[in-house]
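Reviewer comment 2.1 asked that we show a complete input and output for one of the modelled complexes. We chose the adenosine-5'-diphosphate case, as it is the one discussed in the main text.
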Amino acid sequence: MEEDHKEEHFTVAVRVRPFVARELEGAAQSGWEIPGPTSIKEASGERMFIYDNVFDQNTSTQILYEEICEKVIWKALQGYNGCIFCYGQTGSGKTFTMQGSRKDNPGIVPLAIDTIFTYIQQTPDKSFLLRCSYLEVYNECVNDLLNPNLLNLQIQEDKQSGVKVAGATETVCTSVNQVNSLLYMGETHKQIASTNFNMRSSRSHTIFRMIIESKNREYGNADLNVATLNLIDLAGSEGANVHGTAASIHRTREMSFINKSLLTLSTVIMRLSDKTNNAPIPYRDSKLTRLLQPSLDGESKVVIICNISPSLDAYEESLSTLKFAQRAKKIKQVIVKNEVIDSKALITKYEAEIKTLQEKLRE
Ligand code: ADP
Ligand code: MG
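Response of the prediction step:
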């Protein structure tokens, strides 16, 4: 029973996107069948993989969100760290899943923002402070997508606030519109910064981070809860599929850095699932894993969505993604609530904004 309880805090799902126009025009063949809500099978083979969830071509992001992501957001609102990320080769549907496309197909990020603000509105006995940052890990440099002048920021670890990106913009947000304009700003900066946007977006990891502080209004100096929620659109996993071999770390500097972060992530995940190995887990080997450490190291709720193409042409890459998902499945997590007793915490500095937010929401 206890084991079950721990396990459910780590969710690994596979999402198969529909064929896109290019594939339909080329009469692409299906590489995969989905026999049930937790299994996926080779169309022309015997291998079958089982996960917590398998979402087929017809499942909307909204349904996927309600089934596996919303609980992470609820937990973050109660003070537990959360981390949702999309893994998969370029073109497999990571950005579609995380950001969505306009209003008719919202992604996890806008759906999460909606959940957060609805909850705040419905919980007048608590005050909340929401700070957002938008970061990119590109060539093992952490860049601030909210301020294009802030490049190669340093990661700092401190006992009280955990992992911090020194100098990164953290904007206090009091409305859905404000968060949306931050996201828009981040996207614009990303496009301007790159000579080849498509190449860059397939090679960088994008992290939308929300820090949620909350406290009970009724008890003046009650403990604060502080949770960090990371929503991550990972770099394309192609090129990171030869695990740990020198052959996979070659070509350009850029390529090797993607591999470094994704390979380290893969190693960290494998090591977390291997309870028999007590050696230190190599979080420090890449920027991505350093940033994500608090979301992976046993104090957090984690959802990994592994995106694959339906096409037989992408079989090898999809298989590699399914294997990554299999390693991740074994991770067991224990949840620890982040209680902070610190009168200097930011929430006290922002009482005015919080009050305004509450008033706005009641209107
Ligand atoms: P990635 O970010 O992994 O490179 P994208 O999210 O850009 O991939 O998706 C590649 C293409 O497939 C895009 O044109 C996108 O709109 C489309 N697509 C991905 N997932 C879905 C889906 N679930 N339903 C409809 N179209 C999708
Ligand atoms: Mg993308």
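The chain has a mean pLDDT of 84. We note this here for comparison with the apo prediction described in Section 3.2.
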